[in-house]
Design goal:
26 helices
């Protein structure tokens, strides 16, 4: 009887599927504006030169053009770095679902700015538009995994959370396709191409209001227990959800008198130090692996290596990206997070070394350009098999309910800051040290693999309460110190 109840509670329902699908439409937008800037680089750089000539009466210097293009690419990540700090405030005050809906305003405003840049002959509109889109990206790529983690059954949490990365990869691929010169990546149509993310934005705004709010947020954060149970019953498709309700009650009892954890407390309270360091190392190494350099500049890399049909080869990167995440969805609940992290980190380190060898010897061995293509394809496969998707949601698995939004906000900001560094500095470093820039990426990955082996716990199939207990959060912080803390008030205005 107990086994039958558990099976019923963990059944995947259409409500759950639709909720996850609707939420990850935000990730599609993030991926789209990551992938659409690659192929039309030369066309947009020509627009920069024309605008500069009209304004100053001279062509832009090569150094200035490189700097301005690097800023255009990287400023999206800078905007995301800033906005990620506000995740906890939005998620705790407005709720997970409503916050995801609200941030689409940033996306729509960004599209207007970017599409108007050519008509107005203002480079600044494109750059500011990408910055505003970055504000959306930082919030979306944190709020969406947070929502999915809290609506998915424990035994499927990893697989459903990986859907966020899959949607992100699909967005990259769609961006790569529509930005091809044979589609919309032309001198005439590239501003219109930048507006295409309005489709998933509007679709999300039409569908997500009909999806349930996070039951854990309602039950634990707001103390609206009856409403939380009702939303959980909608998600599971059965009134028999008392196993999960019991687990939420236990956590709620422990957290009853504890305030929401602040950013400062994440680094000062002893029981949060290990999980925050784990998430920082995983996210830093994932972004400093070289993946973003390959995604943002792959077409230019292929052209420089003399690879035929460089833009189509970049599409191949996008296809590998998607297929690898699908494999990750199938494996993550069988193999576990830690194993996939290690496989991905070591394989990417090997690929970075392979890229150094292939580029350094290409002048004398023409066939090495195909080794370069193989190395990039294998690298992307390894990234999306483990480190890519896991880095976005492991933070949610390592922290308790009151600490989760703040922890996800600060680690997301750290993630986007590292993305910004790679996007901004890659071309300058490549000009300075050539292909040996990939040795830096390889060194970071080897260090991360050692850290993962010795420090990162396995979270597969474990409840949030079980993982929190491993770091001794509940006892020393939330129980022994409650006499020092003021009671936490339920958020208002819901």
């Amino acid at each position: 009887m107990k086994e039958q109840t558990l099976k019923t509670q963990n059944e995947v329902t259409w409500t759950l599927i639709c909720s996850v699908f609707s939420s990850v439409l935000g990730s599609v937008q993030v991926g789209f504006h990551t992938g659409n800037i690659n192929s039309p680089q030369m066309i947009i750089e020509a627009f920069f030169n024309v605008t500069w000539m009209l304004r100053y009466g001279e062509r832009m210097s090569p150094h200035m053009l490189t700097l301005l293009w690097s800023l255009t690419v990287s400023i999206l990540a800078l905007g995301a770095t800033i906005s990620s700090f506000f995740v906890a405030m939005l998620a705790n005050h407005f709720g997970r679902r409503k916050s995801i809906l609200m941030i689409n305003l940033f996306s729509l405003f960004a599209v207007v700015l970017m599409s108007a840049s050519k008509m107005a002959n203002y480079i600044e509109l494109l750059i500011v538009g990408r910055f505003v889109m970055g504000l959306f990206c930082g919030l979306a790529m944190t709020l969406i995994p947070l929502y999915i983690q809290e609506v998915a059954p424990t035994h499927l949490r990893g697989a459903f959370s990986t859907m966020n990365q899959l949607s992100y990869a699909m967005g990259i691929f769609i961006g790569q396709v529509v930005s091809l010169e044979s589609v919309l990546g032309t001198d005439k149509w590239w501003p219109f191409m930048l507006t295409m993310s309005i489709v998933p934005a509007i679709l999300q705004m039409l569908t997500l209001p009909f999806c349930p709010e996070s039951p854990r947020y309602l039950f634990i954060n707001c103390q609206r227990e009856q409403e939380g149970v009702q939303e959980l019953q909608r998600l599971r498709g059965t009134p028999d959800v008392w196993g999960e309700v019991g687990e939420m009650k236990e956590e709620a009892a422990q957290l009853l008198d504890a305030p929401e954890v602040t950013l400062c407390q994440l680094f000062t309270l002893p029981s949060y130090k290990r999980p925050i360091v784990i998430t920082f190392v995983i996210n830093c190494s994932t972004q400093l692996s070289g993946f973003n350099a390959l995604i943002n500049y792959s077409t230019k890399i292929f052209l420089g290596a003399g690879v035929p049909h460089a833009q189509l080869t970049t599409l191949g990167v996008g296809i590998v990206n998607i297929l690898s995440i699908i494999m990750s969805v199938l494996l993550v609940e069988k193999t576990g997070r830690r194993t996939l992290l290690l496989i991905g980190q070591l394989t990417m380190a090997f690929c970075n070394i392979l890229l150094v060898i292939s580029v350094a010897t290409m002048a004398g061995l023409e066939w090495m350009k195909y080794v370069l293509v193989f190395g990039i394809f294998l690298f992307v496969w390894a990234f999306e098999l483990g480190p890519g998707p896991i880095a976005w949601y492991i933070t949610a698995e390592l922290f308790s309910q009151v600490a989760r939004p703040a922890a996800m906000g600060v680690t997301s900001s750290w993630t986007w800051f590292n993305k910004f560094l790679v996007a901004m500095l890659y071309e300058s470093m490549r000009d300075l040290i050539g292909p040996y820039v990939f040795l830096i990426f390889a060194s970071v990955l080897l260090g991360a693999a050692l850290y993962t082996w010795f420090q990162v716990p396995e979270t597969k199939g474990r409840t949030f309460k079980d993982v929190a207990a491993e770091f001794h959060q509940a006892d020393p912080i939330l129980m022994n110190n409650t006499n020092k803390l003021e009671p936490r008030q339920a958020p208002r205005g819901h």
